[in-house]
Amino acid sequence: MSYHFDPGTTELELDEKPRTLETLELDLSLAFSAYQQSRFTTAASRVSSLLSDLRRASMICRKGQRAKLSGILALSYQAAASVLAKAGESDIAWVAAERGMSAAKDSGSPAIRASLTRSIAFALLAAGRLESAMRLVEAGAIKLQDEIAHDDTALSVYGTLFLLGSMAAARLGDGRRTADYLTEASDAARRLDDDANHLWTAFGPTNVAIHRVNTSTELGDIQTVVDHGLSLDTDAVPVERRVRYLLDVAHVHCMTGNRDDALGTILTAERAAPEQVRQHHLSRKVVTKLVRSTVGQPSIELDKLAKRVNVLPSTG
To answer: Is 261 helix (H, G, I), strand (E, B) or coil?
Structure first.
């Protein structure tokens, strides 16, 4: 909410060198890269500075550059919304996504507009507004229909819209709609035929497979995960996606009584992405269950992990 500039200022300071669109794009890429590497503090810092720089750039932007600048601004707000949602700030995430959508409308890019639609839907999902998120997913996908045949970026955004829809449907307990969304996403991934990262979507067959595990866990279909989802090769997707998968694997191990595997998987995930693991609700859920089901005192390893994820020891 703070851009580090005086709201009353209407002109650049005389000694301030304006940023080029190329350097702004590079900063945007670095912010998204930090997010996908689960370095959320770094991503938040970069996005905060980037929004301030973009505000200044907009004061001197030539007319021919305005659409491109709007696209960078829209995606910067998307990065901000993603980080805020991870931090549990769903209301502010929604504000950031809404501002991003306003900028996206001036970008001239259907893919960017759809990407910000996904960002708003993600904020709604984080806030528990599941039906609203699904309606937005479907509306965004319809608007991309004319683009996906010839644009891999649009196809990737289209697929991720349905992945988000599948999570919303699963949290609602609607298995049929979950399956329908996953089928649509799987078809898009098959057409893309690659684990790509167009517009920082990390979309492809591997991410669809990860979401099958995510949604099966949400729906309580543990046997499907045990039979098909405990040994996915996730090397092709960013750290954030790999660790999200590991958290579901740990959850399934915990639910099936495999305490050692659950603890080992959480620790593996934490080594890869400490920020993500220590603030994720699944980490706390798994660790809480492990602590409460321990006979006697928890192991030193489990006790230290419980402190890192802010789980209080059982008093029962």
So the answer is: helix
